[in-house]
Design brief:
Distance between the termini: 39 Å
Number of strands: 9
Order of helices and strands: HHEHEHEHEHHEHEEHHEEHH
Strand order of the largest sheet: 1-2-3-4-5-6-8
Helix content: 25-40%
Strand content: 5-15%
Largest sheet: 7 strands, parallel
Number of helices: 12
Amino acid sequence: MTPPLSPDQARAGESAALPAASWYGKPYYSLDAWCKNTYGQKLYKVALDAGCTCPNRDGTLGSGGCIFCSAGGSGDFAAAAAPTIREQIDNGKRLLEKKWHLTSDTPCLIAYFQSYTNTYGDPDRLGRLYEDALSQPDVAGISIATRPDCLPSPILRKLDSLHTAYPGKFIWIELGLQTIHDRTAAFLHRGYPAAVFEEAMYALDSHGIPAIVHTILGLPGESKADVLATMDALNRLHPFGVKLQLLHILKGTPLAKMYESGQVAALSRESYLDLVTTCISALSPDICIHRITGDGPRKLLLAPDWSLQKKDVLNSIHALMKQKGIRQGSYFYESGTTDTL
C-alpha cells in the first residue's frame, strides 16, 4: 500500500500522481482512496447546517435560488437539527455508527458545512463555527460548501488563522460551479460568470486552500462536448477535487415545473453512464474525484428514478469503464487539455 501522506501534505489536500494500485481497485482516484492513502483508513462525512442563507435567495442576487436547488439549500442530508455544531456532529456520528464501526482513537470524520452558502455571513460567527468543528478530536478536517462569489478577504484570513491553529487538520472549500458555460449558468440562475469562478480558484490557491469543484452532468441544453469543455477547464485550473453530480429534478424547484411541463428531460441511465465515464477518463489522474453520481432525497426526487439504485449505478460505471478499457486520465493523456475560458 502507498505510505500515508504527512500531516502537512494532508492539510494541503495533496494528491500527487499515484499508481493505480493506490486507487483500491477503482478505475479512478476516489475520495475513499485519498483518505486511505492519507490516513490509512476510511473517513466519514457528517453534513452540517450552519444556519446560513445564500445571496441568490435573500434578495442580494435573487430570491429563488438556482433552478435545481431545493428549499434545503442542497443540505437535505444534514445532521439532525441541534443548537451547536458539536451536537450536530454527535448526532451525525450516531447515525453513522448504525452502519459503520467508527474508531474513537483516531480522527475519522469530515465535518461538511453543506446547507446553503457557508462563507456568506459574519466572518467572526462563521469562524467560530468552523473552529467548533475543527476542535472536535474525532474530526480530521472540515469541508465548506460555498459559491465562488462569496469568498471575501475576511473569510480567507479567518481560514488562514485556523490553518495555523489546527496544523494537523485540513480545511477544504467546495465551490458550486456546475458548468463553465455562461449561457447555461444564466439558464440556471446561477448568478455569476465563469470568470468569477476562475478568480476564486486563484484566490484559494494563493492561500493554500484546496478546492473541490461541483459540476452537474445532464444540464438542459448541454452536449457531451459542452460537458467535456468544463472538464478541460478543470484540468487547466487543477483543483484538489471534483464532484461529478447527476442532475436531480427535485420537487418544489423551478426545474421541477419545467420537467412536469415537458420543457426539460432527465438523463436516461445509459446516457449518464456514457457521459460520466467519458468525463472520468478526461480528467487528470491526480485530481481526486469525490463523487460520480450523487444522492437525491427519495421524498423529493421526481427524476431520474433509476438514480435511487446508487450501488447498481456505481457498479455499472466501473463495469462500463472496464468494458471500454479506460480509467481516469485515459483521454487526458491522449488529447491533453485546452483553454476554454
